[in-house]
Design goal:
- By secondary structure, this protein is mainly α.
- It has one domain.
- It is 71% helix and 0% strand.
- Helix 2 crosses helix 6.
- The longest helix is centred in the N-terminal third of the chain and has 22 residues.
- The two termini are 14 Å apart.
- The relative contact order is 0.18.
Length: 100
């Protein structure tokens, strides 16, 4: 993830305040770390965007997939928790779309 550029984009272009910006960046990092552990391969949002616009990441954050991911992986199992992570990934997708 291009963390610094994403942070700037969230504040300047998307109009997020500092708390919302930190939350979105933190959630995006959480997705990278949790899916790296779960999939046992390096998961970077930038690479996933270049591969399939993060479609596989969003699939792993679906309520259907949540039931098969072990509880030891740091991902929520409830709809609201997964939704907040998907929102952060979707913001990263939008960021990439607009800055490529």
């Amino acid at each position: 993830m291009r963390e610094n550029a994403f942070t700037d984009w969230l504040e300047i272009v998307d109009g997020r305040d500092i708390r919302q910006t930190r939350d979105n960046v933190s959630r995006a990092k959480r997705v990278e770390h949790a899916l790296t552990e779960y999939l046992q391969r390096s998961v970077l949002l930038e690479d996933e965007y270049n591969q399939d616009r993060c479609a596989s990441i969003l699939e792993n954050l679906s309520i259907d997939s949540a039931g098969i991911i072990p509880v030891t992986i740091n991902l929520p199992k409830d709809k609201n928790g997964l939704s907040s992570l998907r929102t952060a990934v979707n913001k990263y997708i939008r960021f990439c779309d607009e800055t490529k």
